[in-house]
Design brief:
It is found in: Cell outer membrane. One of its GO terms (molecular function) is long-chain fatty acid transporting porin activity. It is a multi-pass membrane protein. The chain is mainly beta. Helices cover 4% and strands 56% of the residues. The chain has a single domain, classed as Outer membrane protein transport protein (OMPP1/FadL/TodX) (Porin). The chain has a 14-stranded antiparallel barrel with strand order 1-5-6-7-8-9-10-13-14-17-18-19-20-21.
Length: 406
């Protein structure tokens, strides 16, 4: 019975995947420049990076892009030479923006659809940590209508309402074998929603630009998700079917400061600093609709800490049609020792990016980007699952977007 209770506690980190994997893939130009954009005036992705800049954009536009993401991780259990690796699966964060305002008006309206949190991890069904996780697919898609207003020719402000649609599919093995020796499985599937806001201010001078942006915490609730348990027939009564669960998690707030400099008419240099309020995530509770002595509601401490990221990047306009971009940065993990899980074995990380922008036609642009992230090796023993070993992980993210402007 103790093992069955532990099983339900092991289900608790399901939403922690996003804690160490705030993808921030807001726009292809910005990705190519090391994820800088809070203090820049570039394109419709300002809906995400800084709504205050939208009113300063010289043209109306629509754009759409995608950033396929490969998360590659390996695990070496403590005291062994064994190694386990995640399978090749691809997450698909998206970005889509529209910006419109009358000519010479002081205001513009924007709409954004983007994926700031989520990812995809698959360790397979037969690895040493299968009782912690087998696979996880998590998505948080934000919808953000936005209004921006130019107070003066140098200063503008903007704000947008955020609606989050989230989905999760988690699978874990259960330490209860059938007659053939195969372990059981727990599968949690559900969708949720949450609300928040995004506001910013933008300053434009003859020598530099600057921006300040705040994206609020988004409390996301999953209600009536499906809890599906595959167990030996003799224990089926302890895991009533059908069953549902409710859970929630606060996707953290982010405060960003950005600067842009223009040494020549061909060069743009940018710096961003981000402070992420992960400390709002202190615990995770699961409430099951049907409980038994083995299937109790759970409360799992997470005790995350606030974290920061520093980013820099540059763009060089090689010709009137071709722009070259590059950048990089460093991000500190919010996950304290003892709370690292294989959903995403988070650690401090650095990343390098590059990109190309090309004018296909007078009003049509294509932007390409590529990002490499390296998570520093981290040896951990999880306080709940007692899974102990060393994680080493990398992330590979190509991206492409098309933009039409008028």
């Amino acid at each position: 019975m103790k093992k069955l209770l532990l099983l339900l506690m092991w289900c608790a980190p399901v939403f922690a995947y996003s804690q160490g994997f705030q993808v921030n893939l807001g726009g292809q130009k910005q990705i190519g420049m090391g994820h800088t954009g809070t203090g820049l005036l570039q394109d419709g992705a300002s809906v995400f990076f800084n709504p205050g800049a939208i009113a300063m954009l010289p043209q109306n536009s629509v754009s759409a892009g995608i950033s396929p993401l490969w998360f590659k991780s390996g695990f070496n259990p403590t005291g062994t030479n064994d190694k386990y690796f995640t399978k090749d699966r691809v997450a698909t964060p998206i970005q889509a923006y529209g910006v419109w305002g009358p000519k010479d008006a002081r205001w513009k309206f924007g709409m954004g659809i983007y994926t700031p949190f989520g990812g995809l991890t698959d360790w397979g069904t037969d690895w040493v940590g299968k009782y912690a996780v087998q696979s996880l697919n998590l998505k948080a898609i934000f919808f953000q209508p936005t209004l921006s207003y130019k107070l003066t020719n140098a200063l503008s402000v903007g704000a947008g309402f955020v609606y989050n649609h989230a989905s999760v599919d988690l699978r874990r093995a259960i330490p209860l074998a059938d007659a053939s020796g195969n372990p059981g499985q727990a599968k949690l599937e559900g969708t949720g929603k949450g609300y928040g806001w995004n506001a910013g201010i933008f300053l434009k001078t003859k020598t530099f630009t600057a921006g300040l942006d705040f994206r609020s915490k988004v409390d996301t609730k999953v209600k009536n998700g499906d809890a599906i348990f595959t167990v030996p027939t003799s224990l089926a009564a302890s895991f009533p079917q059908p069953n549902t669960f409710n859970a929630g998690i606060p996707l953290p707030s982010t405060l960003s400061l950005g600067l842009g400099f223009y040494p020549t008419n061909k060069w743009t240099v940018a710096f961003d600093a981000n402070f992420v309020g992960w400390s709002s995530y202190q615990a995770l509770a699961f409430d099951y609709a049907s409980n038994t002595s083995a299937l109790a509601d759970t409360y799992s401490p997470r005790n995350y800490k606030n974290a920061f990221a520093l980013r820099t990047g540059a763009e060089y306009k090689y010709t009137d049609k071709l722009a070259l971009r590059f950048g990089g940065g460093y991000a500190a993990t919010p996950v304290k020792d003892g709370y690292v899980t294989p959903e995403v074995p988070d650690a401090n990380r650095y990343y390098l990016t590059g990109g190309i922008g090309y004018k296909l036609a007078k009003r049509l642009d294509i932007d390409l980007s590529f990002e490499f992230e390296h998570l520093f090796t981290r040896t951990q023993t999880n306080i709940e699952t007692q899974l102990s070993g060393t994680f080493h992980s990398n992330v590979y993210i190509p991206g492409v977007a098309l933009s039409y402007h008028w």
